[in-house]
């Protein structure tokens, strides 16, 4: 115990010893404050509290031995003690030369005979340490909660927007816990309606044993197991890949669904074959949007257009490559949109480097697709027997276009015909003048 006293005026030695004994047994740190607010005595039961530190406090105003934020509290504590003698416990911090502040919880007792206030304090460092650890734990917990919320948000976005069909199934009951929109579309139900339903109900009875076998195998081995099962309406076969995983204390199975062509008669495989055929055919094939901007083109059209990559054409107007850029495309689009299709429209096709070819274009309107557009089949007739005589005469190929314009009377708006005819006549006159003048 450290005991340091200043000139405790008004206190007899016997009184001082009695007070120190009582204070030392009741608290960790006791300060005697005189009427002027100065520290006149320090009693410490703390082993870490150096005697030199106590001596440094003697004779100084109490406000100078506490931290700045503690000064209003110490003033209130002294005022209450001198007032009605009922002072509340207050936590006061004392600055230390090296290290953190010393937190002490004080109660005050007024000695009217000596006109002094005795502050009896308890060391709060252990509690302060616990509070700091509690705050740090709370912050770490909040950060972990935030991380989990972010992970859940990312999971929800991926789960809801993924093109693949996912079902989360409870391993024990084989009930659907959650289904994403792609799975709901594949099964022909609403995603909310699938939750809580038995997985077996979504497939034909004939395929349920295979499904149960795949789920049991995945549960036993922990590896992914696959089965091909008809859907409930038996209109298509679905490939189900089951994978076991754990989420906390729950055992779940992730089922990835993919459509198979076994029941559909190979429609999807046929569509893929058609796409490969269109890619490799010698006739040009182009898909455009409703404004005639190229969305897809096969290799043959890339050769006609004299470009190396399909990306160079994407977004370009098909009319840029036709003989009459402002007319031909509008004539084909308006006729195909009105009648559904246009057959063997004769024109010329110009490449990026000036090469021209006489072609026949058949056009179809595609209104039922997710985005309305047009399909163009382009056939090169420059070297075939189907090419008109005018086309074989080289420079005199233009009259065939005029004859074709005449054939379109009644199926093309007059305004378009007049515009096309005017442009063609102007083009013919310019070419004739160039030939005459050399």
Describe the structure in brief.
The chain has 438 residues and is α+β, with helices and mostly antiparallel strands. It has helices at 13-26, 51-57, 71-83, 125-161, 181-187, 191-194, 208-221, 267-280, 299-305, 328-339, 389-392, 398-407, 414-437; strands at residues 2-5, 29-33, 39-44, 90-94, 102-111, 116-123, 165-170, 176-179, 225-230, 237-247, 250-260, 284-289, 294-297, 341-350, 356-366, 373-380.
Architecture blueprint of SSEs:
Blueprint: E1 2-5, H1 13-26, E2 29-33, E3 39-44, H2 51-57, H3 71-83, E4 90-94, E5 102-111, E6 116-123, H4 125-161, E7 165-170, E8 176-179, H5 181-187, H6 191-194, H7 208-221, E9 225-230, E10 237-247, E11 250-260, H8 267-280, E12 284-289, E13 294-297, H9 299-305, H10 328-339, E14 341-350, E15 356-366, E16 373-380, H11 389-392, H12 398-407, H13 414-437
Antiparallel strand pairs: 1-3, 2-3, 2-6, 4-5, 5-6, 7-8, 7-11, 9-10, 10-11, 12-13, 12-16, 14-15, 15-16
Q: Which descriptors would you attach to this protein?
A:
438 residues, alpha+beta, 5-stranded antiparallel beta sheet, 16 strands
Question: Can you put this structure into words, describing what you see?
Answer:
With 438 residues, the protein is of the alpha+beta class. The protein is 38% helix and 26% strand. It contains 13 helices and 16 strands. The strands form three sheets. It has a six-stranded antiparallel β-sheet, sandwiched between helices. It has a five-stranded antiparallel β-sheet with strand order 8-7-11-10-9. Helix 12 (398-407) runs antiparallel to helix 13 (414-437). The N and C termini lie far apart (122 Å). 24% of the residues are buried.
